Amino acid sequence: MEKEKILLYDGSFNGFLTCIFTAFEQKINVVDIQRKSQVQKGLFTETQIILTQVYKAKRVWNGISERSNNAMKNIYFAFLSETAGIEQLLYLYIQKIVAKGSPNHIDLTDDMVFRINHLANMVSKKKSQIEAFMKFKVSTDGVHFIVVEPEFDILPLVSKHFRSNFSDRQWVIYDIKRNYGLYFDLHTIQLMSLDSKDIKANAGSFNNLIQTRTISIIELWNTYFANNSIKSLISNKLHTHQLPKRQRKYQEDKEAV
């Protein structure tokens, strides 16, 4: 019997799907799938680094799509929950889908299936809340912006809503918990990352303000944006190559799910 392995990937959704492809192709006895930045090795468990390959990810995704759109949504939304151990949970779920031939044949009372559905519903609910209740503020140079710190990684899911409903303005939606944002320039959506040094230089100590709660995060960013040109900041801080591939690749595709 092949030795048990932990698969390590880059944290992207494409990377995760590449792990799934590799596990099936090589018939690996997978005991866990972990992000390389959060490795917790087992004492006697071998690790294997999986390099992200988009064509392999697509093959897995296409295979799931042929079985169920609802399964696609549950898998992607649950992945964005960033719950500890979600990769292994989804791997086992996908194994069941493949074995059964269709999610319709999976026992919905199964604890694993129930948990994935629950996580997907929680992410979906947070997505709806952001879309319904978050309001733009306007910087001194006319860029509309929203700052969020969501429990889940929901920015890839809300871009379609904001692009469709606010296509007449430049806007930024920034997730300060994950330190990346969406920037709409009236034509396309790009990913951006702001340097915390910029924040500290213009609005005091970011970390201290969070810890002491002497000023809310939103108030902090209002002060920051009010004193600076967002347009010039955006042009200098677009770092799409440094950001997780899941937002870049699947942001458009999965919004329609």
3D structure, described in words:
The relative contact order is 0.12. The strands form two sheets. The chain has a five-stranded mixed sheet, sandwiched between helices. The chain has two domains: 5-126, no CATH class; 134-255, no CATH class. It has helices spanning 13-25, 54-65, 69-80, 86-100, 111-133, 155-165, 196-203, 206-212, 217-226, 230-236, 245-255; strands at residues 5-9, 30-35, 46-49, 137-138, 144-148, 171-175, 180-184, 189-192. Strand 5, helix 6 and strand 6 (171-175) form a beta-alpha-beta unit. The chain has eleven helices and eight strands. It is an alpha/beta fold.
Question: Which helices and strands occur, and which strands form pairs?
Answer:
Elements: E1 5-9, H1 13-25, E2 30-35, E3 46-49, H2 54-65, H3 69-80, H4 86-100, H5 111-133, E4 137-138, E5 144-148, H6 155-165, E6 171-175, E7 180-184, E8 189-192, H7 196-203, H8 206-212, H9 217-226, H10 230-236, H11 245-255
Parallel strand pairs: 1-2, 1-3, 5-6
Antiparallel strand pairs: 4-5, 6-7, 7-8
Helix pairs in contact: 1-2, 3-5, 5-6, 6-11
Q: Give the CA-based shape.
A: elongated
Count the DSSP helices.
11
Biggest sheet strand order reads: 4-5-6-7-8
- Radius of gyration, whole Å: 20 Å
Count of extended strands? 8
Order of helices and strands: EHEEHHHHEEHEEEHHHHH
How much of the polypeptide forms β-strand, as a percent range?
Answer: 5-15%
| Helix-and-strand structural type | alpha/beta
Which ranges are low-confidence, i.e. pLDDT below 50, for 5 or more consecutive residues?
A: 200-215, 244-257
Largest sheet descriptor:
5 strands, mixed
Measure the end-to-end span.
39 Å
